[in-house]
Design brief:
CATH architecture of one domain: 3-Layer(aba) Sandwich
Strand content: 15-25%
Number of helices: 22
Shape: flat
Structural class: alpha/beta
Number of strands: 30
Largest sheet: 7 strands, mixed
CATH superfamily of one domain: NAD(P)-binding Rossmann-like Domain
Oligomer: single chain
Strand order of the largest sheet: 3-4-2-1-5-6-7
CATH class of one domain: Alpha Beta
Helix content: 25-40%
Length: 689
Amino acid sequence: MKKNSLKSLFNPASIAIVGASGKKGKIGNIIMENIMKLGYGGDVFLVNPSCKFIKFKRCHPSLGSIGKKVDLAIICVPAKFVIDVVKNGAKNAKNFVIISAGFSETGKEGAKREKELLAIAKKNNINILGPNCLGFIVPKIGLNASFAAGMPDAGNIAFVSQSGALAVGFMDKAKEEHLGFSSVISIGNKMQLGESELLEYLAEDRETKVIGMYLEGIKDGKNFSEIAKKVSAKKPIVILKAGKTAKAQQAISSHTGALAGSDEITSAVFEKIGIMRADNLDEFFDLLQLISFTDAPKSKNVAVVTNAGGAGVLATDSFKGKEIELAEFVKNEKENLRRNLPAEASVENPVDLLGDAEEIRYQKTLEILNNEKMGCILCLLTPQQQTPVEKISEILKCEKAKNKALIAAVFVGGERVEDSIADLKKNNVPCFSDPQSAVDAIDKYYKWNVAEKSAPKKLAEKNSLERKKQSNEIISKALADGRKALFFPEASEVMEKFGVKCVESYGIKPGDGVPEIKNYPVVLKVDSDKVLHKSDKQALILDIKNKEALELELKKLRKNFPDEHFVVQPMMERKTEIILGIKKDAIFGPVVVYGLGGIYTEVFKMVDFLVLPADFDEIKKNVMKGKLRFLFEGARGQASYNIEEFARILKGVADFARKNDKVREFDVNPLFIYNDGREALAADVKIIL
């Protein structure tokens, strides 16, 4: 789609309403009334073959009969007529909003109809929003091209929703929160125009400061990631993504497949590409309010100012696990605070102004803390008997305009603070219901602001074509044999080409005797894609002392697992066991999963995700901020593990994931890593085809 090709859709000079009606309650009537009575200044054409006039305005029998081109056609006729309307009107209009339901959301017949509609759109080079959508609203030009009532306030938030009903509720709530919109867009079935296309358009929209989205699914994960990465470097994107408890994908054959829920991968992708993910509707409002009202904090230092010790303690607790932190005041700041506050007041952070604090204490404190190093000053208030709530809110409004730091408020209370909260929000001072909400939102805004906005670097890969060719030969042979997995000797050969060294092994085919092995003790295990948990299935025998014992154990295993392959490996000293592998996400493609391994892998689920592509430095950074960080920092007096070696192994797995599309799932469990100079070794590798 060409850049800015959606401008005439969302800022049309003329509109045709197909299915316009004079009957109250009809969708065609509501949309007509919204467009004609709420301030839209362009030409409006009514289309309905059953009427000659609607409310003294001429009605055309079809789009083609209008006799001139229109920028936008809004269709609200039964689904069975939509195809003909679009087909016949494609010469007159290049932008359509299809309100009508009855497409892919209704089953096979509707999906067939939607497919035909998409083909018409491509053939005629037209834009279609919907079908099955609410429409859209652009408050600044007085255009409500939807069947939602009224007109929201104009502002700088673009809200895109996959749910029309939620969009209506959101706009109603936004009135109370004093939030204004550059646009509200319902995408419905997003047959053609979805989240990716709208991100591109809104990135260039001058009226939009922040893009908020409610999504239930993402159409094309790779395309979305590429576009969102570019857009988030320009403007903040906040997404409320539904579907956290969706059922796991069927036919999962590896440990990593079982560990990696699609929602966790979505969060990892959002973090990588710079999207702020709201955990719930309240946080969605908090983030949009904060970003709409103010610029991001320029440093991680936060000062908390309060008239209630308890509120200050709650605020302090809220910083746990955050990148923003309570600022350390310098000597002269503390001295200035002592001179201007009562002796009983605390001049540490949080600054406790005491319960009898009047507006002058807030003002003096904010002035003293006004400096380049302070990223945010969070002002807490509880309405105690002596508290002049309105006067304090006036101080915050004034200080917001002149303070170098982001000024935000938390007014804890009900009736006594509600007017002041509304007044603060009217004047673009973000105000939160509790300290935790404030700190959560400010932290996410800060992290977006300091995150790398550059596009992913092109990865230099040594001998990548040769490695791909060699590994594909092994994989293709297994597929030709009708197998769904590689045997361990094959898998270890593939892995070593990508820098993951495996333990020495001896394969045993059906009918083979035991191999000649010099060094005992050894491990004997079943080598089969049908046996995922070897310990649970008694498919693993440890500490076999000699050849005679090996022959005996092999005979026992063959009774339980006839016609299977087996593998013999030396007993390894256990130090730390790691699991790592690939999860093929249905939306975003291959993702590397890694964490603590061994028999308790799926009990603890202590795993992290590496979203691809990723270079060596990014991989190291990912590990050092993840759940395994303690291993590479030398926790509890232990020698640290080798982060360079581990990052190289992860890089190899990442390269393997990107170069082998015939692999469905893959994991190494365990990978033994050591902190005494010994080399990391993979003891079990599963490659599912």
